[in-house]
Amino acid sequence: MSLGATWIRRVLVIIALASLAGCATSPQERKEEAQQHRAAVLNAQLGIDYMRTGNLKLADEKLKRALNQDPNSSIVRNAYALLMQRLGKNNEAEDNFSKAVALKPSDGDVHNNFGVFLCEQGHYSRAYVQFKEAWSNPLYNTPEFAYANAGICALKQGDKKLAEQRFEQALHEQPGFSPALYQLAKLAADQGHNQKADAYLGRITGEARYSPNILALCLKVKRAVGDMNGAADCARDLYRMFPNSPQARALLQNR
């Protein structure tokens, strides 16, 4: 079954001095170790930024440099794992995700990212363990990401009931979390519950309303409930804001 959605990622590379292993024997060595760590995290941040802009060659250069500077940084291992995942180098991605969670088991973001990777590989039980590690951690500030990704993973397994439960749990953590609202609206619309779908979409506020997926679903649902003015608004925003999107092209072809 197709996911029909983009995984919800939360990649935050924070330039901060983490606790360092106590193997240095002098203040000068500790200072140099701290400097190497800061440089590694800075290069990891640059690597993530290059990934976001699609410059994978420079991302690879920065992240390999970061690994050389501090191979024992969970931040660096997580960032490099994401790049390997992007490049389809799954063995290297899994190896680096595993090292990242071993280096810092309390990092919910790393567990969430590892869960996404494992689910993409079809390792559903292992993915669930990682998502649960993330949302069960009281220090993880955004458990809604892990719940929502667990819902998307449940959809991939074909378990709509479990998916709905996970999306509702995400909303319990963050009532306005648009990825979960969109998924619940889509599930409702797929089952013909268009009024319910419309209610979920109506809870998406601000800039989150404006994405090709949400606008296309909005158009479909508004038509189904007989709100032609609302449907026209969604179509107008889709054409105006995302004219080259697959959703806009599909709509033009079907007119």
TrEMBL record:
SUPFAM superfamilies found in the cross-reference section: TPR-like
Position of the signal peptide: 1-24
Entry keyword Metal-binding: no
Sorted UniProt keywords: Repeat, Signal, TPR repeat
Domain of life: Bacteria
Transmembrane helix found in the keyword field: no
NCBIfam families registered for this protein in UniProt: type_IV_pilW
Name the UniProt record assigns to this protein: Type IV pilus biogenesis/stability protein PilW
Record organism: Acidihalobacter yilgarnensis
Source lineage: Bacteria, Pseudomonadati, Pseudomonadota, Gammaproteobacteria, Chromatiales
